[in-house]
Design brief:
Elements (H helix, E strand, L loop, with lengths): L2 H8 L15 H10 L2 H10 L1 H10 L4 H10 L6 H14 L1 H8 L1 H7 L6 H4 L9 E5 L5 H7 L4 E5 L3 H13 L5 E4 L13 E7 L6 H11 E12 L10 H6 L3 E5 L5 E7 L1
Helix pairs in contact: 1-6, 3-4, 3-5, 3-6
Length: about 260
């Protein structure tokens, strides 16, 4: 199944339009060359010049990629084909758009099937300061807050930070602190955390992310990365890289297929 089809199935009641690309943040635009279907993207750029203008002004580093895409792909004029191509672009990066436009929809549709005992023994964090980096809608942060002293929920997107802040206030949670930041630039001092957690947040800048994780964790602390999997044979696309950084892999099949990578510093 194509990734776009998978997203359409998960978010089948969600309406995305081309103009939703105007919600993309600079760091998301940088990610487009790795994700976006080029032939279809060229058609969208020609059909919607405002999108072209927005992207190159919001994140100029993407200009060479856009110029290459437009040069290498022919003009498409058939209306139905144009419509199909634009729709394919939207849904191939659908989760990026949903992050920005519908954080509550993402939170309700993407299931977090981890129990705390599968992640680690809760006794290990009962008096600890921990961080959930790339916290998204805060599903993992909320779970960790039940067992740890303090949770820093570090998230680059304002839409997710606002959504999580509302949940914290609604539920009178006083030990989650939301911070704007990235996994490759964690806004915390050296050796300030006992545990760093991520949930499907790796890979925007993998090697630098690992350097930052090692920088902020105290000696003897741990990094734990939780991953979704669509079947029992699926592993993280960063599996080999994680093993090179001395992570150990643990598979789980309860409530769906999933994987955990863990390393002690």
């Amino acid at each position: 199944m194509k990734y776009s089809s998978h997203l359409k199935e998960i978010f089948k009641d969600t309406n995305l339009v081309v103009e939703d690309l105007l919600l993309l943040e600079s760091f998301q635009i940088k990610y487009l060359p790795e994700r976006i279907p080029q032939k279809e993207f060229a058609t969208l750029l020609r059909t919607y010049p405002a999108i072209h203008h927005f992207l190159v002004n919001k994140e100029p580093t993407i200009i060479p990629f856009i110029e290459k895409v437009l040069k290498e792909n022919k003009i498409v004029s058939k209306p139905e084909m144009v419509k199909d191509y634009c729709n394919e672009v939207i849904w191939e990066i659908g989760e990026l758009l949903i992050y920005n436009k519908f954080p509550e929809t993402y939170d309700s549709k993407i299931k977090f099937n981890w129990e705390i005992q599968e992640i680690l023994s809760p006794n290990l964090i009962h008096d600890k300061i921990v961080a959930d980096v790339g916290a998204g809608s805060g599903i993992l942060s909320l779970l960790l807050s039940d067992y740890s002293k303090t949770v820093y929920a570090i998230e680059p997107l304002g839409s997710f930070r606002n959504y999580l802040q509302n949940r914290i206030q609604k539920n009178s949670i006083d030990n989650i602190f939301i911070i704007e930041g990235f996994l490759n630039r964690i806004p915390l001092p050296d050796h300030s955390l006992y545990f760093v957690f991520t949930s499907n947040a790796l890979g925007w800048d993998f090697d630098q992310e690992q350097k930052e994780i090692e920088r902020v964790i105290k000696p003897g602390g741990k990094a734990i990365h939780l991953m979704r999997a669509f079947d029992r044979n699926a592993v993280s696309p960063y599996h080999s890289q994680l093993l090179k950084y001395n992570y150990k892999l643990h598979h789980f099949e309860a409530k769906g297929f999933k994987a955990k990578y863990i390393k002690k510093l």
